[in-house]
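Table S2 (text version). Query chain:
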Amino acid sequence: MRKSVAATFLALSALAMQTVSAQAADVSVTATITGADIGTRTLQVPGSIALVTTSGQSQLSGSFATVVAESAKQGANPWSVTASVTDFSGPNSSTITKDKLTVGTRSTVQVLGGGSLSYTAADGSSFGTTRELVKNAGQSSSVAYTGTYTTTNPLALEIPNGSATGAYSATMTLTLVQ
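Corresponding structure-token output:
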């Protein structure tokens, strides 16, 4: 039985092939790009963020970068990166509330890709609530994009009067919304 199936397959394959007398031939190739099934859009985040103090200042500061990478991904209108933070826990159960952390003037380096970038959270906005760090609008859902968007996000943590000295830590959750 296997021999007859193989022979039938070979015979049908031979019928589907075209015979040409030249050493080269043009063959038509078609490809259909289907919307959501193609490409990727990913968010790359830092392992940690350090906030440091400067002599004579009443706040700690630092910055971090987020990278959104698209690889032949169907346009989304809009997509954004958001951040939320927990309260800071310190020595002897002391706490600095998350609303004391603010985001400053952001900038994005865009390599290829598409759309237009904006920063909806105003400079100095606190993390008392989830903040949108960068937003990309204007991508066409009928186009596949490949590119990177690297956003620098400066931070400042205001030190409340009477705060215990020592190390404080919080957790920041970064989300790619698309």
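Notes on Table S2: Residues 93 and 164 are 10 Å apart (CA to CA). The longest helix spans residues 2-16.
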